[in-house]
């Protein structure tokens, strides 16, 4: 096996993990997918290993010598059992330790567009902390600060489809906030560059599409000509 084409993906059964994993497999990479126990059957493009904490001892020998680890575990909503600190920060620390034990020199991480040290929202703060762990790890890194990633079955589109079926689409807040959606196929191409090219070494890069749109516009274009009620709701509303 050509080691420079052997990669490990955490969160391999998530939206980005599945799409990038498939693309890498098709493009000659040997992909090892790490998934939580019970989710082993959800992917068919990679050799799958189950791991809940990414710190199990038996994991190291199974991924040793891979050329890069693509760390795609993350969560944008928190619960009592699974908060941002636990998922976005602590698991990143475990992944860094795992890379070192398994002699994987390169880590690629998806952070959020706009994350910086003055972030005030919990999700952004946790992404910033995860970035800092990676930057100070001594590993070669590419941190990609992503805007919304779209593609077949992306979580936002699925959510909007669900709301359209019910006949009413919610827009949290004013809807005037803007984002730069990027297609997941383009994200996959950037991943290959991040793995292969020295110019992506030890860099933090924005990962955004060519067009800036407001959420209002995005939703209206998504709905198209269908007659659907649009309702503005408070940001903290949980039902959208
Ligand atoms: N999609 C976007 O627009 C976007 C934008 C900016 C940044 N990002 C970041 O990109 C990464 C991938 O996003 P995505 O859209 O693919 O998200 P996703 O579909 O929700 O996938 C997240 C992955 O993380 C895993 N995960 C969550 N909590 C975990 C835990 N406690 N232990 C182990 N695994 C856990 C999930 O595993 P299970 O399947 O077992 O739940 C899933 O595989 C995330 O870090 C996200 O924050 C995404």
| Biggest sheet character | 7 strands, parallel
CATH domain class: Alpha Beta
DSSP strand count: 13
- The backbone outline, from C-alpha atoms, is globular
Low-pLDDT sequence parts: none
CATH architecture: 3-Layer(aba) Sandwich
- CATH homologous superfamily identity: NAD(P)-binding Rossmann-like Domain
CA-CA gap between termini: 46 Å
Tell me the number of structural domains.
1
Q: How many separate helices?
A: 7
Strand line-up in the sheet with most strands: 3-2-1-4-5-6-11
Rg: 18 Å
- What share of residues is helical? 25-40%
**Could you report the average pLDDT, rounded to the nearest whole number?**
94
Structural class: alpha/beta
CATH fold-level assignment = Rossmann fold
Order of helices and strands: EHEEHEHEHEEHEEEHEEHE
Question: What can you see in these coordinates?
Answer:
The mean pLDDT is 94. It is built from 7 helices and 13 strands. The chain has 240 residues and is an alpha/beta fold. The protein has one domain (3-149, 180-209): Rossmann fold. β5 (106-112), α4 (122-135) and β6 (140-146) form a beta-alpha-beta unit. The strands form 4 sheets. Strands 3-2-1-4-5-6-11 form a 7-stranded parallel beta sheet, sandwiched between helices.
């Amino acid at each position: 096996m050509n080691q420079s084409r052997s990669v490990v993906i955490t969160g391999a059964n998530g939206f980005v993990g599945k799409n990038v994993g498939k693309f890498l497999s098709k493009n000659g990479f040997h992909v090892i997918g790490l998934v939580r126990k019970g989710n082993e059957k959800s992917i068919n493009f990679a050799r799958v290993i189950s791991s809940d904490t990414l710190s199990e001892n038996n994991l190291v020998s199974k991924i040793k010598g891979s050329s890069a680890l693509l760390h795609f575990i993350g969560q944008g909503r928190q619960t009592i059992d699974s908060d941002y600190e636990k998922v976005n920060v602590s698991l990143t620390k475990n992944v860094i330790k795992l890379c070192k034990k398994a002699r994987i020199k390169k880590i690629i991480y998806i952070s959020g567009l706009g994350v910086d040290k003055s972030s005030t929202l919990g999700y952004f703060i946790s992404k910033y902390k995860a970035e800092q762990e990676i930057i100070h790890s001594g590993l070669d890194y590419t941190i990609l600060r992503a805007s919304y990633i779209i593609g077949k079955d992306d979580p936002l589109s699925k959510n909007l489809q669900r709301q359209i079926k019910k006949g009413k689409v919610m827009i949290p807040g004013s809807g005037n906030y803007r984002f730069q959606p990027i297609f997941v196929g383009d994200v996959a191409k950037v991943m290959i560059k991040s793995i292969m090219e020295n110019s992506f070494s030890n860099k933090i890069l924005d990962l955004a599409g060519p067009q800036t749109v407001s959420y209002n516009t995005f939703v209206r274009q998504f709905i198209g000509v269908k007659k659907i009620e649009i309702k503005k709701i408070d940001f903290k509303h949980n039902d959208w």
